[in-house]
Amino acid sequence: MSSLSRSDVANLARLARIDMSDSELDALSGELDVILNAVARVQEVARPDIEATSHPLPLKNVYRPDVVQPSLSNAEALSGAPASEDERFRVPQILGEEA
Amino acid sequence: MIRKSAVEMAAALAKGETTSLALTQAHLDQIAAVDGAVHAFLHVDTEGALAQAGAIDKARAAGEKLSPLAGIPLALKDVLTQKGVPTTCGSKILEGWRPPYDSTVVTNLKRAGIVILGKTNMDEFAMGSSTENSAYGPTHNPWDLTRIPGGSGGGSSAALAAFEAPLAIGTDTGGSIRQPAAVTGTVGVKPTYGGVSRYGLVAFSSSLDQAGPCARTVLDTALLHEAIAGHDVRDATSINAPVPQVVAAAKSGDVKGLKIGVIKELNGDGYQAGVRTRFDESLQLLAAAGAEIIEVSCPNFEYALAAYYLIAPSECSSNLARFDAMRYGIRVGDEAGASAESVMNLTREVGFGREVKRRIILGTYALSSGYYDAYYGSAQKVRTLITHDFIRAFEKCDVLVSPTCPTTAFKIGEKASDPLAMYLNDIATIPVNMAGIGGMSLPCGLAPEDGLPVGFQIMAPAMQDQRMYSVGAALEAALLSKWGAPLLSQIPALAGSK
Fold it and tell me: What residue spans carry the region label Disordered (chain A) (predicted)?
């Protein structure tokens, strides 16, 4: 049973794109250890010969006819955006200054 | 009028004894009178509701053929989009967002002429069992305002119990319709997975999420079920088959010769004495109505909770990646020179609450390279074992039953600091979601030791939802003749209540 260190949790927070405070990281690493210990029980019965279920319905690919359908207008699609410009989503800088 | 069932209200509308406008106004008045104390609603759409009610009255006056619930008010869980009406999912990250489209559930409600009063409070992104995880403050249980109304759909269940609405919509990922129904003395159904479209339902755990009907009687719930169910091309996991005949089943309530299996593992240790008392009494009533009661074993259910708290966080860590501060919701830290990544990180830090962050991190871990097989992979195997347990059990009986929750409503704040204790609340409801089958909770009395409602859970095989309604209606009728009045007639009056 692996245990989660504070730096493990900081790395997970970075991967999940959440800028967590130090106090949150401290609290969370303790809590996650307890939760992980409890949920690790699944390993007791998960034998190699058991198939995994990812979904309750036995669905494969579901297609619709390849016909153009009405969709949101440009204005509707942008209506909830934090910022927009020239009928586009305006986002903060993605590449570094030198790029 | 607001204390009546939706069926009784519909009859009064049909006879011209009242109008949808008057009925809608009466519920808006009740919300104004009691919601300060209950806090079931995050947004009340007074103008929209009255406009919808007026349109239905006009259609009725013009002699148009209307659906059975036309003109009846409803409370909508704030996780389903309604065009132009604020939708927050109980999260700060979506504060102020007005969706540009209707969810299919809302489209179906509008088509049925059901009047949407407003959006109800919930645990943030439906993660929780108490509605304490809402960024907008907790909802209070109308039976005892110091207690939780269940969660995540505590706003919807509280609205029903406080007579703020006769109908409500919930969503159920691990019990979020059934557990709130149980602790508020109301009825709630999680339909078969795929029975009701998920289009416009903000995703938490896509393979488990299911919207469903909530009401104060089994028949009202069935009518709402039929109004919202059915195939939808916009949800690839929607089942393309006729909707089970739930209204007919709720009207007949016939259980003669039906085999009812009591799940040994969902009863006993850990279940409050009064919960067991009321559950056992209900079994006797069903036996007296002609059902055969047998005991069945589902040995892998003891691993269901552990598997759920890997699968749901894993799916949530992926689903909630869409909240990136770019296309909708709040944006924090967008100052000159700030990178998209730093804005994203800051926005998610500020916008998400503790439980949501906890689950995102847990899911990120369970899906990460090197741990995937041990955690998420093993949980998926447990999901197979649970499904097999159900299949074997349904070979021996028509429906399965258990108490909906191990305890009655706990105090607000009591379990807030102990995630594992909170998770245990869902121990009896989670297996249903894992297998994608149907589950109902209906009130079966008050626990003698605390006078709080107890829920009775009925489970049926996939797309056999009508069986839950037959059994639910039979039990409801037997309890009603025993009590002489519905359970909710015993609820303490709220200050200012109409």
Answer: 74-99
Its pTM stands at 0.97
Q: Does B93 touch chain A (CB under 8 A)?
A: no
Interface probe, candidates B95, B240, B365, B418, chain A, greatest A C-beta count within 10 A: B365
Query: Hey, what domains does chain B have and what are their CATH numbers?
Result: 6-301+383-490 (3.90.1300.10)
Inter-chain residue contact B382 with A42, CB threshold 8 Å: yes
CA-to-CA distance for A29 and A25, rounded, in angstroms? 6
Residues 6 or more apart whose CB falls under 8 angstroms from that of B188 comprise B153, B157, B170, B172, B177, B178, B180, B181, B182, B212, B213, B214, B221, B440, B441
Q: What's the pLDDT tens digit per position in B337-349?
A: 899 999 999 999 9
Q: Taking a contact as any Cβ pair under 8 Å apart, which residues of chain B between 326 and 345 contact chain A?
A: 326-331, 334, 337-345
Beta-bridge partners for B339: A93
Is the predicted pLDDT of residue B472 greater than 70, yes or no?
yes
pLDDT at residue A99 tops 50: no
Question: Would the CB atoms of A17 and B324 count as touching at under 8 Å?
Answer: yes
- Distance between CA A88 and CA B71 in Å, rounded? 40
Say whether residue B277 is in contact with chain A using an 8 A CB cutoff.
no
Residues of B in contact with A57 (CB under 8 A): 193-194, 237, 239, 436
Give the model's pLDDT for residue A61. 86
Do B80 and B171 form a contact (C-beta atoms < 8 A)? yes
DSSP B352-385: S-HHHHHHHHHHHHHTSTTTTIIIIIHHHHHHHH
Q: Model confidence over A7-57: pLDDT tens digits? A: 999 999 999 999 999 999 999 999 999 999 999 999 999 999 999 999 998
- Give residue B279's pLDDT: 98
Half-sphere exposure at residue A66, Cβ-oriented, CA atoms within 13 angstroms: 0
Q: What is the DSSP letter of B136?
A: T
Q: Which one of A4, A59, A83 has the shortest CB-CB distance to B237?
A: A59
Nearest to B207 among A15, A17, A56 (CB): A56
Closest residue of A to B205, CA-based? A55
What ipTM score was computed for the predicted complex, to two decimals?
Answer: 0.94
Best CA proximity match to B494, nearest among B153, B145, B4:
B145
Which residue among B207, B307, B387 sits closest to A42, beta carbon to beta carbon?
B307
